[in-house]
Structures are given as C-alpha cells and as structure tokens.
Amino acid sequence: MPESTRSSRGVTVVIALAIALAGLCYSSWVLEFVLPVDTDPVDDFLSELTSGDRPYHQVFATADKLVGLLLIPAAVGALLVFRRRGLTTVGWVALGCFGAATIADAMFPLRDCAAADSGCGDGLIPQLRQPHALTSTLAVTSIAVAAFAFTLAAHRYHRWRILRVFGAVVLVTGAVATVWMLVADNLSGSYALGIAQRIQVGAMSLWLLTLAAAVLAEAGEWIE
C-alpha cells in the first residue's frame, strides 16, 4: 500500500473518532437523569443545564466546548483529505460551523429568566430573547444543513450506504421533533417542549455517530 494511502486512511480514522467523540459529548444531557440537577425533562430546555445557577453546569458546558473542539478540526481535516464534492463540501463546512456555534452556546449560557432584572421578556419561551438563542439557532441550523447535505450527497453520488439508510431515518426523526417545537412555540401551553428538544438533540448526537460510522466503515468512498 502506498505511503500516501496509508496516511490518508490514518487521518480518516482520526476524523471518524473525533466525530464519534463529539456525538457522545453532545449527548451529555443524559446525565441529568443521574446527577441532581433539578430539571423537568418534560418542559425544561436542555440549555438550562449550562445555566450558571444550576449545579454541575460546568460539566455540561465543558461537554459542549469539547464538541466544537473535536468537530472543527475534523471538518477541516475532511476538507483537506477527502475528495471534494459540492454537497460534501457544504456538509463539512456546516459541520465546522456547528462546532463553532456549540462552543458559543457554552460561552453564552442561558440566563435565569426568573430573575426580576433578567430582561428575558414574556411569552411561552422567554429564553428566546437571550443571546443564547442566537447561538442555539445557529447550531441547530448548521447541523441540519450538514445532515441534509450529506444525505443528499449519499443518494446523488450513490455512496455511503450507512448515511443513505440509517442517516436518513435519524434526519427525519430530528426534523419531526424540530417541527414539533416550532409549532408548539406558537400555541398556548407547553406541549412537552422538553421532550421534543431531547428527541431533537438526541437525533443530532445519533446522526454524528452515524456519520462517524460512515467515515470509518466506508473510508475508501470518501477518499476516491
């Protein structure tokens, strides 16, 4: 095997591992069922886990930062090593943006909207008046663009069966949860927004693991 091919495959393994670790870190919210964080999984946003007034908030904030620190170099590495295709280029750039937005999420945590001087405003989801809403929106949008781009690429280029099949199922699941949240935001009542977001974020983590599996198991199809 040529030295360049061995080197490329070695980098591919590192990229896959970085994406997989990012997916695991992004699922750190499951610790809310183990740690005494005093959240309501039915109605509370996951962003409240990183709020400064919550116990163990540094644990969840650190996990978010690790997601970005893993994904940004992984995306850059993929752009440098893997064959350039229009849709996959969009996907890797979007994945890097997701990593950056996730770091920003941790740097601008949710403020306590119960405080009289919080300035969050009124409404069903007053937290959306905060800077954290922007970083969260950028993160969700970025990974959605990445997932759609890679799924479309898998079908158009007839490659990466893992993404074509399982990745598409995860993408649809996350999209349904997102629609659930967007519709509920315009209705009176909570409509279990906490559950909807946990499904959404869980789908994001699972999609990252799916992408990692596709990169690792189908390495040759990324390089060719």
TrEMBL record:
The answer to whether UniProt assigns keyword Translocase to this entry is no
- Give the signal peptide as a residue range, or say none if absent: none
Q: Which UniProt keywords are listed?
A: Membrane, Transmembrane, Transmembrane helix
- Does Transmembrane helix count among this protein's keywords? yes
Give the transmembrane region(s). Answer: 66-82, 89-108, 133-153, 165-183, 195-217
Tell me the domain of life.
Answer: Bacteria
Q: What is this protein called?
A: DUF998 domain-containing protein
Instruction: Please report the organism this UniProt entry assigns to the protein.
Output: Nocardia rhizosphaerae
